[in-house]
Design a protein that fits this description.
With 233 residues, the chain is an alpha+beta fold. Helices cover 40% and strands 21% of the residues. The radius of gyration is 22 Å and the shape is flat.
Amino acid sequence: MALKEILNELFEPNDFNVTTWMAMGSMILLLSQLFLPSRVTTLIPIFFLGYRILKMLVDTLRLHTGSYTNMMRGRWTATLPEPEVPSRLNSGSDGLVMFILGARINHPLGKLSPGAWEIDEVFQNMWREAEQNRGKWGYLGRTATLVDYSDAERTPTIWLSYWKDLNGLQEFSRSAAHRLGQNNYNAKKYPYMGIMHETFYAPKGCWETIYDDFPPWGLGKLGRARKRGDGEA
């Protein structure tokens, strides 16, 4: 795992307020002055800020040629793959289920609170088991971990997952990894943990995907992408 991904797992910008981040930055600067020459401690933030400004200018000049290379240009849509297990074909297999799972650590220390890393591992194990049973459960995939920055107190984490039918989602809820997390939660092993979920089912013909100059995301990343014709909305 890259250093950036590790840091993102450790902290989210909203884990602490702005004044706390500024105070921690000032403390790091003060500590660096104890061990490094004053010229070095002065040049480090100047060089970093200069690099960010230069990168922004270069990206702006290359906006439509080199920047944002993961973007799929033009208008496109996504179609769902067929179930990998033929026996899963049923009256609901042409539809789509979206399962929204959310978690919120109601503790001042956030991800540094006791047991937070264990909680994260519980969620990761659930998704690993879903991935291992993709064909059996009709699991299509999920988004990366999303965060809700509108919450002024803590940063809820959200996952959007997609399934071919409700039966597969129910099988997931009875899996070993999910039951372990559910039992621990019901036993109040994580008393400061808040969770939520919402489930939506859309029958065939009652959902659509439209992306325009947008990177593969959601169903567009999980399904088969195709260009939309000029006559399509």
